[in-house]
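Zinc-binding oxidoreductase: structure tokens wanted.
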Amino acid sequence: MPAETNKQWVIRSFDNTFDCLETHEAPLPPVGENEVLVKIQAVSLNFRDASIPMNMYPFPSKSDLIPCSDGAGVVVQTGPKVKHFRSGDQVASLFLADHLFGDLNADAQKTGLGGFLDGCLQQYRVFNELSLVHAPRNLTPIEASTLPCAALTAWNGLYGLKPLRPGQTVLVQGTGGVSIFALQFAKAAGATVIATTSSPAKAQRLKELGADHVINYREDPNWGETARKLTRHGVDHVIEVGGPNTVQQSLKCVKMEGVISVIGYVGGITNGDERPPQILDTLTAAAIVRGIQIGSKEQMLEMVQAIEASDIKPVVDQRVFEFDQAREAYQYLWDQKHFGKVVIKVE
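Answer:
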């Protein structure tokens, strides 16, 4: 049976500090006829989660926000009309609660957990059953909690527009969650992977995960041309997470008709004194530059099947935080001390 109260983390203000995260206890919400009560067991953090209290997130967020889109747990109660879940099922959340299939639209965009809607950094959460998926059978709750944002974004980047094919080349930037998942998905598909990093230690980890080539972007600021020389005609898919500081190099390495999936801005939202990327640069490169906001439930179900079929294990940082260490987890992510996904245990 669930507890009588629900301990939550709440962001009271967006004031450039993680001190604005506070704990709070609330009564358990009622479970509607099409809803499911989930005991959250683990939550993973994304750069987006840290950027919200730092007042850097480019989309609106509700006041008194329960943060974090990415949660995994076990079903403890179902409404009378729920068809696809039962008590004891292991589940993961859907980032955009109403993006079930097809193209993203403005209404579905406004159903992002941990931003427009309250998220998963709490002991229990009620979901509409359509906003959940069964967790992959080969993953623990800690591993499954990493899937809703980073993994699905990487999957969408590789398969959402021009599906990745064996023998093609993928470039991933850095060692954050999206990039690591893209590396794993690409290798499982028989692709060649070029990775960038600034750390020799992280370069070694990337090679251990299967990266065929690793470029240190601090030692080689013109890494885009270097990456291109490692291919025949250029890179087929670029997973672009850096923002303005890296797009120019991505345009240098991508092949004609290749795809640059713009996913994040971990390198900042300005690029110093360099000329900012221009829309006509896509014409010069003859490439597709595509912005991605996560993906649909349909895509997530396809991804779960692939994770099970290839026994893909998410890369979780060696430090897993306890529920009462949420502020420390946020700071750890913000300081970029992690390799792979930062996870908070809730149980």
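Residues 297-310 form the longest helix (14 residues). The first strand starts at residue 5 and ends at 11.

Cheers.
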